[in-house]
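Exercise 4. Each item below gives a protein and its sequence. For each, produce the structure-token representation.

Item: Beta-parvin (Chanos chanos).
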Amino acid sequence: MSAAQTRSSTLQSNKMKKEESFLGKLGGTLARKKKFKEVSDLQEEGKNAINAPLQPSSADLLPEDTLLEENAERTMLDPTSRENPKFKDLQRVLIDWINNELEEERIIVKDLEEDLYDGQVLQKLFEKLSGRKLNVAEVTQSEIGQKQKLQTVLEAVNELLRPQGWSIEWGVDSIHAKNLVAIVYLLVALAMHFQAAIRLPEHVSVQVVVVKKREGILHTCHVTKELTTSTEMMMGRFERDAFDTLLDHAPDKLNVVKTSLITFVNKHLNKLNLEVTELETQFADGVYLVLLMGLLEDYFVPLYNFFLTPESFEQKVHNVAFAFELMQDGGLKKPKARPEDVVNLNLKSTLRVLYNLFTNYKNAE
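Answer:
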């Protein structure tokens, strides 16, 4: 090997050693930084684990919550409660009820939060239920106009409900902010006060997150809100009628009433060679109710309009609901009972329906 080659080899070897030494130092520095970061992350994780129960989770808070004024408070539905099947069922029942009540207005509600916050639907619903016309603008696009309409509607509602002992769990701001719990509270109260022909799901409760700002710090807590109780208790808010008194205090007279109603219905059903012996069961599929309405009003009900031999629960409900429509066509008020109650062999509901027919057609031949 020549001297030039030897010098070149030595220089290259020294350069590689310097690079290795530099990379080694760099690697050591990076390793130390990585280790420090891991320790720091671990400490932070431990700190968060300790403090987590004291701090609101990101799932609970929305960006606007950080803008709360001192001593202000905000409530919102806990995300887990939003998926509660019973809560969803309650919303569905209320939506169906609203759409049924406002069918003539051609109003269709699909979402309680999005469709009720501006006061338009609430106005129409209250006017329909109460028979009272409110002095408000028909269409309001601005936030101020919407809140003014809500103010008028809720004042009328509260004026009606407060004397009945209702706790007012709603307000203009909460409804306009699309607070679902406040909206549901309001609708349940209206449905119960006006004795809506619906069955509200029993014992529906939700968790509500309450956010408060104290000394610049947000504090949260969870509160359980009971939206519905038992059917018995909810029905207790309604005006009790003769059948409530009869069943509760004079059960011995119940057979007398049942015998009178059986005599009445058989007087007409016998024309079709049909006979009733048990009120609870024989009207549960709706067939006899439909046929009875045809006989009382003296017309033939086309067989394609109902199920002559219903097999499913849905088909039976269809029949009873159809019979209710025939009653309304005949000038009777819509029965307070739900078709589902009759199908489910609810004696009180069946008696109410038949007694309503008896009082209106007892002199019919």
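Check: The longest strand covers residues 205-214.
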